[in-house]
Amino acid sequence: MKLMQGLIRSSSELIVKEALALGADLVGGVDPAGLDGDMERSLQMMFDIATAADKGIDLHLHDGGEPGLATLRRFAELTMESGLQHRTAVSHAYCLGEQTESDVQPTLDMLKHAGVTLVSSVPIDRPMPRGSQVLNTGVNFMLGSDNIRDAWSPFGNGDMLQRASRMAERENWVSDDRLLGTYAWVSNGKLTPSIGDPADFMLVRALNAQHAIASVPARAAVFKKGKRIR
Ligand SMILES: [Zn+2]
């Protein structure tokens, strides 16, 4: 079993290195404790590969409870030690919503200090990092869609406006400010484009951006690189 794990580990290391050589822009990882069974070794390998290739990291973390929080703290430490501040992210991090605010605050403080971004798909079936606490701590936060109609979950649709809306509803953010705040987590944060920006945008029928986030209207048109694609 140990030998088998060793073989799997070294072959996945090779695959990740090959992917980077082919142009992958981030090193990924998933559940260093729960899935890899060796949190320290798994994280060390992620950071070794990332620093050697001068790439950032996106760690997918479902591990709950103390193993999850310990992984986040070690991830923050290694981010600092490797000089990868503002280039690493952790997706999901359910554990930050599982315990009390005061229990998870020290871990959030470390993530803030190390410039680690948190990314959430805004699940409705389990805890997630508390939006207000993340905001108050000043941790960089983004939303993602995770699965899009696949074997893992058939409920995804890649609609980031809907994720922003779900985030605001989950936190009961009903003021203009708070509704608008979620827009920055699913976009470049700009409502008015400047000359030179990539022409990736969508048009919706809404009174304003906060109305669009609250009502999630059908897209009237979607543009990618200046071309209408829908
Ligand atoms: Zn996921």
What can you tell me about this protein's structure?
The chain is of the alpha/beta class. It has a domain at 2-143: Alpha-Beta Barrel (TIM Barrel). Helix content is 45%, strand content 16%. It has helices spanning 2-21, 39-53, 65-81, 95-98, 101-114, 131-137, 160-171, 176-183, 209-215; strands spanning 26-30, 56-61, 88-92, 116-120, 141-143, 201-204, 219-224, 227-228. Strands 1-2-3-4-5 form a 5-stranded parallel beta sheet. A 3-stranded antiparallel beta sheet has the order 6-7-8, with no helix packed on it. Helix 6 links the parallel strand 4 (116-120) and strand 5 (141-143). Helix 8 crosses helix 9. The longest helix has 20 residues, at 2-21. It is globular. The mean pLDDT is 93. The structure holds zinc ion. Zinc ion (ZN) binds at residues 60, 92, 146.
